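Tutorial handout. Part one gives the primary structure; part two gives the three-dimensional structure as tokens.
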Amino acid sequence: MTINSGRPRIGFRPAVWASAERNPFVTQLGLAAKAEAAGIDGIFFGDRMLASVGVDEKAVYQSSHTEVTVTLAAMAARTERIKIAPLVLVVPFRHPVQLAKITASLDLLSNGRLMLPVGGGWNDHEFETLGLRRAETLRRMEECVEIMRALWRGETLDYAGEYYTLEDVAIAPLPATPGGPPVWLGSFSPHSLDIWRGEPFTSKTKRALARVGRMADVWVPMLYDAAQRGRIRRETLQAAWEQVETEAGAAGRDGSVTFACSHWFYCVENRQDEVGLADAMGAFFDGSLEDARKTYLIGSADEIVETLHGLLPTGLRPAWFIMTSLGPSERQLEYLVSEIAPRLRAMT
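Part two.
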């Protein structure tokens, strides 16, 4: 297994849900500025199209937030040092030329601080709403990444793909980062039952891991699933990572892919935190507290770090730990900075 020899970076993703009572940008931008001031390395934000979605009659989320590229632009303008990134950007929602232009502009706005975790999406209702078929979305994502990388390099592009055809297309201005921002690839979804049950990988999962090995700069898989009420098993994650490395080697990319560990958390150290947890869960999670504890990282700072440590295979040390708070709490950001991040950075 490839071991990340450097100190892991810490990312923060604030879960700021839309509500009629407040403008969520006030909270989002305030948390981004506070995260930067506290020494957090990256600020991340999700991509949700609809107000709620489910799978197999189970709610996966019943809340939403502001549009991701608008939010990242505002965060870039509010900050100076911290990296910014979607987690993850559902690229089939947008045309690749449009997305190349948006992301090049975001990278310029942030002076080269953009990272680009992308995914193919998973929810039928969102795709149907946009006139897309879920069966097409992963190939659309691959073509989109190919097109964006060529346009970021400043090429004038002729492209004939399965879903996109371009003739004499270029964009300007180019990103601040030569060649464009690093592309991260997500993996797994509520439909990935082989992952959540610890079963042998399906052909679909194997193709997804092969795609990561061929294309990704960073792999950022889902390590939890709200619909299945559980976390990935350690041995499943190890087998998946080994396949990513094998596929990267076959593509002539040995050592080119690093790993990012992304999870949701809520640190509970006293009664006040317990009350805050109940409020946070009520905002979006359709399940019991027991279900939430099986799915997310809930407990003291020591318990959260211990659970993460037990989740990661021996020798696999992330380049990034990305921690999503279950609610828009400054207190949770403080716990991350003072109690959790030092322990994660010390993991070897």
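Part three, for discussion. Residues 1-5 have pLDDT under 50 and may be disordered. The radius of gyration is 19 Å.
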